[in-house]
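Lab notebook, bench 4. The sequencing result for the construct came back, and we need a structural model before the next group meeting so we can plan mutations. Quick request posted to the team channel:

Model the 3D structure of this chain.
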Amino acid sequence: MKRRMNRLKGAGILMAAVVAAGSLQIPATLQVEAAESVPASEEMVVEESIFGAASSQGAQLNFSNIGATFNVKDYGANTSLDDNYPAFQAALDAANAYQKNHPGSQCKVIIPKGTYRIKGESGHGLIVYSNTWIYAEGATIKRRSDYNWHLMQTDMSGKGYNVTRNVKIEGGIWDGQGTETKNDNSVFRFAHASNMAFINCTVQNSFNAHIIELGGVKGFTAQGCTVRKYSQNDSSLKKEAIQLDICNNKTIMPGTATDDALCSDVLIENNTFTDLYRAVGSHSAVVGLYYDNVVIKNNVFSNIKGKAINTYNYTNCIISGNTFTNCCEAIDFRAMSMNKQYNGSFYAPANRSTPKAGGLKANLLISKNKITTDTASGHEAPDAAIRVFGAKVDSAYYANGKLAIPKGNYYVEGVRIENNTISGKANGISLGDVRGATLSNNTITGCKRSGVQIADGSKVTISGGKIQKNARNGVLVEKSSTAYLKGGKYEKNSVNGVNVTNSKINISGKCTIAQNGSHGISLTAKSKNCKINNVTVKSNKGNGIAINKGSSLTMTGGTVSNNKKNGISVAASTLTVKKIKVNSNKKNGIGFAGASKGNVNNSKILKNAKSGITANNGSLNISGNEIKDNSKYGISLSGSAKAASLKKNTLSNQGRNEIVVSGGAKAPIKTTVSTKLNAVTSNMKQVTGTAHPKSKLTVKAGNKTIGTGIASTNRQYSIRIAKQKKGTKIEVSNTDTNKNIFNRTVKIVK
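Done. Here's the predicted structure in token form:
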């Protein structure tokens, strides 16, 4: 669903004159000019949130009521000056005075083309006030090397969201000169404000600090901007270029009131972020309070040494249509530290209310992003291209005598990750302590770890998509998690296509798990109550399906074929299959070992290079199956294997005996003699061969019975038939007391 909105509209209004405000002196040369015209019909299409609520529209600005225009050159600004701070601030002060004396009006401050140096005053940078449009197209504003403060800021003295309102900064290169100044103050710092916008700006070059720092800003837009160049001399300072923060304490936002005002209604779109440690987000949060309605879309992130987008406690968030290249990680979305202990970036509420543990109802959509992670020199060690996680906190943490983080589970719920293309030197998608997440139609290829990692009690649905050629598993499900795979391709991963350890999985739909370096599906470490329905598992270099260490699987329908080891391998675990096809595997069709339990019913087990079903231990029920053309035995039971039920199976054309029961194995029937049918020609009137002693034999040509007989006590038989044509298939069969049918087929060749 989409919603159209008008944003940042402007209309030209010509004013007759500019008047003095209070004691402020306005230069006589000041000219009042018409506001720059912006088409009133300008519209933007904004995605709605995944549950139907309107997503962020960013700053709600409409500079159509320009009362006066102020040019910094009229206040003494000059590109030849060593410090243009006085002239710039005088123009900003004049605009502020004018709009105060003309309620409802707005002002435009123009910075003409050229390069301007700014030193500033001790303790603060240029101060911008409400209802101000700064137009700096073609201008470069540089912080002077000996200036140790922000280049521009708002009034920091008040609380709430309306200390400063309605500010648009359009155009210009705003240069913090971080490599020259070596000061750790942001280029821009806005707090307790509403409706702030950066349009078509370049903001760059900070040192140990954010580039644009926002604390308690409601309604923010960054559109068409370039944000770049972060340097540091302290590896612990991992700063976001655009920082969304909360005014909780003096550590987070020094110099501001502590009222827990945080950022909301944020729109960051069509920007370029490059040569940074982190690009967008937050690294501070308050338990129980949330950054709300944040849209980050259609941006380009390149050469990001850490996390391109780093978020704590975000709700109603859309991250869509972005391109990430040479980034350590693209998106890190969290509700709590993964360390199960205190994370220094989470704080107690400033109002001293008691925080409560609980999950984060994220309402998060991550879609249509193109991501390539990398570990170039100076980059952090990556974990995943996309990482979403909460955590269980084992013990409460107190900060400054106050309860900061109560003991409990800080899980994340309400997550959709869809239609992303991911590759690089980390996991593709990593989810921890996430509930009700859906991953749909993602392409995850060539990651140096697993395509998808699901951990810490997460419940995740994966639908469609391709997870291929990753250096570890296609999908890893671990640590008591549950995954639902509905369709999709899991192919050519270096280890397992799907690896489940101490967790649960349900795989269904048109799902193909093929050509993986080890097993197609691996279940281990008590992965119980797993289910597979109508899935294709083929051409894997290990077993098609491996079930180990107390795991259990029920499989209905589907095919397990052409795997280089067993089709299905079961070790000290439980397998129940019905109506499946296990064929052309390079070892056994289904193999049981250890104290396993097996129920193999109404399935086709065909053309495997060794036996159809083999067991050296465990308790089995085998009934109603078609077991055909296996190179060794149809069914082989040995050691301590027990078959309580072995009935109504049809065993045809095994390389050796149909059923072998050896060692201490127990079954309701004894070892069978391989049913053999000697060669038959078109002029023969009898068929001969061997079968189980005294067994009743039926000879058929197609579906027509052409002869019957009984094998002798020495297993031989000779049965009269009518002559048959060349090419006719002749089948001889016999049935035991458990209604198992043993067949042998030959073709008349001459």
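Residues 1-54 have pLDDT under 50 and may be disordered.
Will bring this to the meeting.
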